[in-house]
Amino acid sequence: MISSNYCSACYECDDTCYCSGCKDYFCDDDFKSHREMLINELDEFTADRKDLQKNINEGNSNQRSVLDITATFDEWEERTIEKVKQAAELAKKQVVKIINSNQEESAIRFRNISKELDDRRVKKSVLEHDITRLKQEIYQLKEDVIRMIQTSTIELNMKQGDEIEWNEMMYVEKKSVTLCNRWHQLKPIGKYLSRS
């Protein structure tokens, strides 16, 4: 006895095609519609990428600038001795390193996601698990960008007084930031985030 697979959309068995992503069978017409639906979802991700780029750029411009931080160091240097200037130089380098590493990491991740979106769009090569993975990567990048946008991601630590531990007098730390209710500040990636 020959077994046939029925189209999961119209429940007919003529000329069924198999989708290795969702593991369903489709007739030719419904398979074409199924593929178009996947491509449309990928197109929406590509469109949302512009908003994500804007948010990344806002994050870069909204953080406390390196100049503001160095001005704080400079005022403090005027009230202290020569060893304080050495500690200030070390702290300035740490600030620049923290800010640059955050921005560069986000930019690299964004470029990688963008390239994959473009490649998949051009090749029309996308399956459900690709959409799920891309959705998660974009969601994670958005969370990280939110942390980066917050102005309090860098903490200046300065000790003042007659008895100063010169090695601990001034240093810079990257603060751990909780997201709390900051998510609403960025536009979500549509329906994809709510489905995961």
From TrEMBL:
Keyword Coiled coil applies: yes
Keyword Coiled coil tagged: yes
Domain of life: Eukaryota
Record keywords: Coiled coil
Annotated coiled-coil segments of the chain: 35-62
Name of this chain's protein: B box-type domain-containing protein
Gene source species: Rotaria magnacalcarata
